[in-house]
Specification:
The complex is a heterotrimer of chains A (388), B (351) and C (310). Chain A is of the alpha/beta class and 388 residues long. Chain A has helices at residues 52-59, 90-96, 108-111, 118-129, 131-148, 152-169, 174-181, 189-206, 212-215, 225-237, 255-272, 283-289, 307-312, 317-324; strands at 8-21, 24-37, 41-45, 67-78, 81-84, 101-104, 243-247, 275-280, 292-297, 300-306, 371-374, 377-379. The radius of gyration of chain A is 25 Å and the shape is elongated. Chain B has 351 residues and is an alpha/beta fold. In chain B, the strands form two sheets. Chain B has an eight-stranded mixed beta sheet, sandwiched between helices. A three-stranded antiparallel beta sheet of chain B has the order 2-1-4. In chain B, helix 2 runs antiparallel to helix 3, helix 6 (138-149) crosses helix 7 (154-167) and helix 6 (138-149) packs parallel to helix 8. Chain C is mainly alpha-helical. Chain C has eleven helices and two strands. The chains are: A alpha/beta (388), B alpha/beta (351), C mainly alpha (310). Chain A binds chain B through residues 47-48, 210, 224-227, 254-260, 262-263, 266, 281-288, 307-308, 311, 322-323, 325-336, 339-340, and chain B through 49-50, 183, 185, 213-219, 221-222, 225, 240, 242-244, 246-247, 266-267, 270, 280-281, 284-303.
């Protein structure tokens, strides 16, 4: 299945990120380089603590203190222009989040607010990002009604129409704000709410949620894991973002539900044309879903290639180790010897040197750079630093 | 092969209370009539998705939960089992029956006998960070079974603790530390050390590798296999990770909503699962090979709630081969050859 | 300096204490709390040195100075009496110093008693649940329904009719109003801990109920007990002072801060004319309660994350 990937929509260059903790400075990201092309699914694979989740958070600039981005560039190309996300201020970022880049997390019921129904929460996203579109639809509806009805009803429709048009032009105008607060007048919002509700139901249907009219009023704790995750995906896709960052969304789900969600993500991605950055530690999921794969270890990107190459010709010793440790019947269980180094005092040079069976002297002195060894196949290892 | 543990018709229901008077309004039928026979020295795998009752089964077998009905026989001679069966059928209220049950049936033993039994059966929990008391030193955690049972005192306890720690790959420098100073894999080893210290014969491993990293998983699995050979242990390995179970177990049972739907030797089961649920389950595992993409999900819908399981065969609402009888009567678990048991009416139809 | 060889057994406890001390140092308010509490501890411990008692008399009885006569009117501070005197020329300085020791004594006795009762009842109620839990908790609720201070005062009045010493009566009544709080606290901790995996693991090892309660549940509940107890120190002293202030506490001549204020109360109407008779004891009370409150807050800030981390 060939996907024509033209431009790059997000590019991360030399990202360094530290966590200032009580025990010391954790150098979580040590010069991460990656890019995501339009319409592709990029898988980011690594163990716990390798920095894959934090990379996703940095792209959206939602890293929480004590984490701090030290240096780096995160470029984001939209409509022909490119912006450095790390330079944007908060109000601009809040327009980007959800609209151009969305994120979904591992535990769906933690991402949903337990005191509001899922329909309300999805509606919130509609209100924030697709407000104008909805108001325009309502205006069209009202114009139609104005022509059809007569008398008192026509009058009401005209008032509502004027309010909506004003809302479209200047949402903060005094007239609109007063109207929103006065008890009877504020019912004019109902049309907008109904429109949002209809669209939410459409969206839930798109996500293959059975019986969406009932689900829309349910609370997160009433839903099963799979359903809740679909609702979270719905929230992320409301504004049809260019990039969806998925941080291990199926790890906590049953295997049959995971299969359903993977198929769903695949279909939605094809329909909407978004790119997906899929973070996981499960190589099976990567093989099933992704176009390109990026392997991370201890805060560094160690290898990146398209999915076939990674599985058939892995070059970096860590990638090879990962593939070998997949359990196979009849074979004894193997794993990469040793443990992930602590990131407060990482070893000098290549961070994999302690566990690598091909480690050479230089691996302890100099950190290998990510070089292209074949078309679109990059490795960061001194074994290949000669390049092509 | 002699049977170490025989489980007959085991039922475990959890009551749900509701209403103003907090009366029982419903029951969660977590384990519903399970029959298994585990052989000495084998690793018996139990797989299934969330809500199928596998963890409840593991805990009920070793009496961490009290079963509602059924029998669990541990190393009980066949004659006694026969005697109990006979008495149950013909004279269910006899004193002799009660006496036999209290002596031999794990589901009925009480008090001191139960405590003695705990020496022989142990459990390793899923999450090592919550299964170790955070305010106890490692040496006390590991020594707990010995000390609670009164099996050893003083210096002998310490010696045995060090011995067991070395068996799991830790050392005596770890004695005077708290669990939070260790990594997940090491904590799980401490839990294993605690489980083997009284020389048990049977250990329930409840998803022991689910909460640890992929690289640590292999080390732990190797440890389990080594210990099994060294100490002659019998395992019940509960997991939702089908690939791991495939590599470590000799026989595997697939559970769905509290019932066993298929039971067979591992190679046989993974090669040709017969039950439609088992087939869908195995087909859903994402294979780490990009040439083998599935493109469609093998099973749709969600697991129904165990409070109101569907009548008849519990899987019939989602089954593509469902027939009339499937909705009316529960299929029994029958041996279709070579120890391969299936509970399904449709296989006969397919064959 | 030679590094002391610490027995291996104590190593982890020492590491824990060091961690707690380091965290406490971070906040100036915590340091203030510790400083105040330590100062009071020193005063209490060295009371016989700082204010030597009259031989042959109960050291808690404040000595009067005969050289000033037995005037009711307090005398101002002077070189002989640093804080001045109160009615019948009792030395305020002596009373404040020994008052510190007395405050600690009362508070410790009350806390030991209430915590013990709370642990016993809370553990049993929380662990066994069911009928016994209902029984204990309803009884606790009934006790909590009475307004605390008024119940204490009533009890003291009744007991004094049957010739109990007021100070013993005060002790008993404060214990009586204190134990329900601890029972509830410990019961809720037990309920939380009971469902943890390691309790199930302990049962799988064959541990008896008693062993689980004392060896597993209690050590995990101890942090919250420490936090509440340290805040309680201050509030117990405040309660005894309040009762003494109402005349139901320590008898005349006892070195209790509240009693001193009661005695000084008659002179409040004179404005600041006899200020030393009620200002000094008042300052001592305020600093004592403040110190313990700050310490309690500091402990909560430190122990809470420790709690969660483990």
């Amino acid at each position: 299945m060939e996907k024509t990937a033209s431009d790059e929509i997000v590019e991360v260059q030399d990202l360094y990120l530290n966590f200032y903790t009580y025990e010391g400075i954790v150098k979580a990201l040590d010069g991460v380089n990656l890019n995501i092309k339009r319409g592709e699914i990029l898988g980011v694979v690594g163990e716990t603590g390798c920095g894959k989740s934090v990379t996703g958070l940095s792209i959206l600039k939602i890293v929480v203190p004590p984490g701090k981005i030290e240096v780096g560039k995160v470029t984001f190309n939209v409509k022909g222009k490119s912006y450095n996300i790390l330079d944007l201020n908060e109000p601009t970022m809040s327009k980007v989040r959800g609209r151009y880049i969305s994120m979904i997390f591992q535990e769906p019921r933690a991402a949903l607010n337990p005191v509001y129904s899922v329909g309300y929460q999805i509606g919130e996203v509609f209100q924030h990002h697709r407000r104008e579109e909805i108001i325009k639809t309502v205006i069209e509806q009202l114009k139609g009604e104005v022509e059809k009805t007569s008398g008192f009803k026509r009058h009401i429709c005209k008032i509502q129409l004027s309010l909506y048009e004003r809302m479209l032009k200047n949402p903060k105008s005094l007239r609109v704000r007063l109207a929103l607060k006065t008890p009877i007048l504020k019912r004019f919002q109902n049309r907008m709410k109904t429109e949002i509700r209809n669209r939410t139901i459409e969206l839930l249907k798109l996500l293959r949620i059975p019986d969406p009219e009932r689900v829309i009023d349910m609370y997160p704790h009433e839903l099963s894991g799979g359903m809740a995750q679909r609702c979270v995906i719905a929230m992320a896709l409301v504004a049809k973002p260019m990039l969806l960052i998925a941080d291990e969304p199926t790890t906590n789900l049953d295997v049959t539900v995971q299969a359903q969600i993977l198929v769903l993500i695949n279909e939605l991605q094809k329909e909407l044309g978004s790119s997906i950055l899929y973070v996981t530690h499960d190589l099976g999921v990567v093989a099933e879903l992704c176009d390109r794969v990026l392997i991370m270890y201890a805060g560094n990107v160690v290898e990146t290639a398209d999915v076939m190459t990674i599985f058939k010709e892995p070059l970096h010793p860590y990638t090879q180790g990962l593939l070998e440790s997949i359990p196979r019947p009849g074979k004894p269980f193997t794993s990469i010897p040793g443990v992930v180094p602590g990131l407060i005092n990482p070893p000098p040079g290549c961070r994999f040197n302690e566990r690598c069976k091909y480690a050479m002297d230089i691996c302890w002195k100099q950190k290998p750079k990510l070089v292209e060894v074949a078309k679109d196949h990059y490795v960061a290892c001194h074994l290949y630093s000669g390049g092509k | 092969m002699e049977s170490l543990m025989t489980i007959e018709n085991l039922k475990k229901y959890f009551p749900i209370y509701g209403g103003v008077l907090k009366r029982k309004i419903a029951e969660v039928k977590a384990v519903d009539s399970v029959n298994i026979s585990i052989n000495k020295g084998e690793c018996f795998g139990v797989v299934g998705e969330s809500g199928c009752g596998k963890t409840t089964l593991g805990k009920t077998i070793i009496r961490l939960l009290n079963p509602n009905a059924g029998h669990v026989y541990y190393k009980t001679p066949k004659e006694i089992v026969e005697a109990i069966k006979y008495l149950e059928k013909n004279n269910p209220k006899s004193k002799a029956l009660k006496h036999l049950l209290r002596e031999y049936d794990i589901a009925y033993v009480k008090g001191r006998n139960l405590k003695k039994l705990r020496r022989h059966m142990q459990i390793v929990f899923q999450d090592p960070s919550t299964s170790l008391d955070p305010r106890m030193l490692v040496k006390d955690i590991v020594a707990e079974p010995l000390v609670s049972q009164g099996l050893a005192k003083g210096g002998k306890v310490r010696d045995r603790v060090v011995q067991v720690l070395e068996m799991v790959g830790l050392s005596k420098t770890h004695l005077y530390r708290y669990p939070h100073e260790f990594s997940g894999g090491q904590r799980q080893r401490i839990a294993v050390a605690r489980a083997i210290i009284t020389n048990p014969e049977f250990i329930v491993l409840d998803e022991p590798t689910s909460s640890v990293d992929v690289s640590v998983r292999a080390q732990l699995l190797n440890l389990f296999q080594d210990l099994q050979k060294e100490l002659g242990l019998t395992y019940m390995f509960i997991s939702h990770d089908l690939s791991v179970v495939e590599c470590i177990s000799q026989r595997v049972a697939v559970m769905y909503l509290g019932k066993i739907v298929e039971l067979a030797e591992t190679a046989e089961l993974y090669k040709s699962p017969l039950h439609p649920y088992a087939q869908a389950l195995f087909a859903s595992i994402p294979v780490p090979d990009p040439t083998k993409r599935k493109g469609r999900a093998p099973l749709y819908g969600e697991v129904p709630s165990p409070v109101n399981p569907p009548p008849g065969c519990r899987f019939h609402p989602r089954c593509q081969f469902a027939m009339d009888i499937c909705g009316r009567e529960e299929p029994p678990l029958i041996d279709v050859g070579g120890g391969h048991h299936v509970a399904c009416y449709a296989i006969n139809k397919k064959e | 300096m030679k590094k002391m060889k610490v027995p291996e057994r104590l190593e982890p406890t020492i590491k824990e204490i060091k961690f707690i001390l380091r965290r406490i140092k971070d906040s100036p308010l915590s340091l203030a709390g510790i400083a105040l509490v330590s100062a009071f501890i020193i005063i209490a411990v060295f009371a016989p040195v700082l204010a030597p008692p009259k031989p042959g008399f109960n050291p808690y009885l404040i000595p009067s100075d005969p050289s000033l006569g037995f005037r009711i009117e307090p005398s101002p501070p002077s070189p002989n009496h640093i804080f001045g005197t109160t009615t019948a020329q009792r030395d305020i300085y002596y009373a404040c110093i020994w008052g510190a020791r007395w405050a600690f004594q009362i508070a410790l006795e009350v806390i030991v008693a209430t915590v013990t009762v709370g642990i016993v009842l809370g553990l049993v109620a929380g662990y066994y649940g069911g009928f016994i839990d209902e029984l204990i908790m309803r009884f606790t609720d009934i006790m909590l329904a009475f307004p605390g201070l008024i119940l204490a005062m009533t009890l003291v009045t009744i007991l004094s009719q049957v010739n109990w010493q007021t100070i013993d009566a005060v002790l008993l009544s404060i214990i009586l109003i204190g134990w329900p709080g601890y029972t509830r606290l410990i019961r809720s901790e037990v309920l939380r801990i009971k469902n943890e995996d390691y309790i199930e693991a302990a049962r799988a090892c064959g541990a008896s109920d008693l062993r689980i309660m004392l060896r597993h549940i209690l050590p995990n509940a101890v942090y919250s007990i420490i936090i509440v107890a340290s805040l309680d120190f201050g509030s117990i002293v405040l309660t005894t002072a309040a009762m003494s202030f109402l005349g139901l506490g320590a008898p005349l001549g006892w070195s209790d801060w509240g009693r001193l204020i009661y005695d000084g109360m008659s002179f409040v109407s004179g404005g600041l004319r006899w200020w030393w008779s009620w200002v000094y004891p008042g300052v001592f009370i305020v600093l004592f309660v403040l110190g313990w409150s700050l310490l309690g807050d500091a402990l909560r800030d430190v122990l809470d994350p420790l709690y969660r981390r483990k």
